[in-house]
Amino acid sequence: MSDLDWGAFTDQGPWELDPDAITWLAQAPELRRAARAEVPRLTSPKRYPPGTRVLTVAGSMITAIGPWFVRKQRGGFKDTSASRADISLRLRKAAEILGPTYIKLGQIISSGEGLFPAELVDEFKRCRDQVRAEPWETVRRVVEDDLGRTIESVFESFDRKPLAAASIAQVHRAKLRTGEDVVVKVQRPQVAALVRRDLEVLAYLAPHLVGRIPIAALANPPALVELFADTIVEELDFRLEAANMIDVAKVLKDLDQRGYVVPRPHPRLVTKRVLVMERLSGFNFDDVVGMKNAGIDTEEVIRTGMVAFMEGALIHGIFHGDLHGGNLFVLADGRTALLDFGIVGRLSGDRRLAFLRLMMFATANDVIGQLGALRDLGALPHDTDLQAVMKDLGLDRPPIDPTTLSGEELVAEVQRVVKALLGYGARLPKELMLYVKNMVFLDGAISRLAPDLDLLAEVAHISMVFAEKHGERFAAELGLTDGAWKLDMEGVKAGFGVDSSVDKLTYRELQERRALIQKRMQNRLSS
């Protein structure tokens, strides 16, 4: 049986994958369980500082923030944008000095367009693949130690200069002795020990930040550290990443999602710190001009991405958890290649059903249903009074167009909602965080690839596709009777913050509304 019968791979692969014959694939479930079992130990608060690393971290942050704070107090910035640009640069440099753990935090921030200030996002984008690379001799040593052979005995050629260097690893072009063009991902030496040590430092510091600064109060630092640890520990073993590649390829094939491909990991050249995979090439995801000149429909690229991403989560509970411009590109035939599978969202059993309910109730504008689904996902305590939450958040009242509010009213509303959520013990589960982060990326991708896409029409189209393709399954899993669910376009419009009389809303128009809201809030916060 060809691997194309069960996986979303390129049409002509450099080798054939047989899941039953791959050693590292069989090891993956136990390796994943062991990685997750580490998290409680790494994130449990310590009574005493875990070594001198605490002083190093604190010193680096004070050195980064101190000069900015003094300059700001003296009125040294011409406007808030200049102030944010300065602190963003300082934080990025501090993260690079502190090493892999903090660079990884920067990468997460870089994917948060719309969630974090634009200056901070733009600065931390440099942490994706522009981190200082390890020297060639170090790369050689890691590869040879893990493969148990000399580089020359495995590779006909191996580029010494990496294609990209990020927090945990760097990537090199190479060619196998058997003739296949490949990409080799090599983990930085000692990174696993460094990350674990830093997680213990963060776990020690986090409780001391609760209530100290606004962003810490909003984020719940201890919960964030646990969330971050749960994400990063699995990235430290490339056998798990290779297994993720296989799992996502299977999901995409099962869903008949032909618009995506996954590079094949090598069946024998995968270890804890080395991952050899098929080399693919195409257009950078931001190269809109190049794609259009090649006749690629960029709106279809976006449409395929949204449907595939949602289907994977809703049907199989598996989805790529770290979408950003450096992790995917578009092939000449219009298909999108997914890269970097260190972070994959996995929703199993009741959590997948809770997520399915969340999506279904959102399109039906069922507020209590959505809150119940969030509770079952772990975003709210199990004993939460949902009716009280709805009342406190004002969800029982008609929606207000945010563009009609002043800056002072917008800030007050955000503060009110945050305070209410914190009062109920709200938190952000890992899978929901990854999903939201990916949606934020896709939101930004629409602005570049399909700014004139009619969002209301797309919501209706995607809902119809899901109803036709999976309606019976959804009804059976959720116990719905015929006609129990229907798309509420009035609720969808309210979610976008527009009046029910609006029949069309392009992304460009939505961005104009957002820009107005952001300007009013920034003016209020800086006044």
Summarize the entry for a quick read.
By secondary structure, this protein is α+β, with helices and mostly antiparallel strands.
Shape: globular
Measured between the Cα atoms of the first and last residue, the distance is 67 Å
Strand residue percentage: 5-15%
Q: What's the number of extended β-strand segments?
A: 12
- The whole-angstrom Rg is 24 Å
Q: How many DSSP helices?
A: 22
Number of domains: 3
Structural class: alpha+beta
Low-pLDDT windows of residues: 214-218
Mean pLDDT: 86
Helical amount among residues, as a percent range? 55-70%
Described by strand count, sense and barrel closure, the largest sheet is: 6 strands, antiparallel
Characteristic key phrases:
single chain, 527 residues, alpha+beta, 3 domains, six-stranded antiparallel sheet, globular
Description:
- The chain has 22 helices and 12 strands.
- It is an alpha+beta fold.
- It folds into 3 domains: about 5-15 and about 235-270 and about 280-345, no CATH class; about 35-130 and about 195-235, no CATH class; about 350-525, no CATH class.
Sequence-ordered SSE layout with sheet pairings:
Layout: H1 23-43, H2 53-73, H3 80-98, H4 100-110, H5 118-124, H6 126-129, H7 136-147, H8 151-154, E1 155-158, E2 164-165, E3 169-176, E4 181-187, H9 191-209, H10 214-219, H11 221-232, H12 238-254, E5 260-261, E6 265-270, E7 274-278, E8 283-284, H13 288-293, H14 298-316, E9 318-320, E10 328-330, E11 336-338, E12 344-346, H15 350-363, H16 367-377, H17 386-392, H18 407-423, H19 430-449, H20 455-478, H21 489-496, H22 507-526
Parallel strand pairs: 5-11
Antiparallel strand pairs: 1-3, 2-3, 3-4, 4-7, 6-7, 8-10, 9-12, 10-11
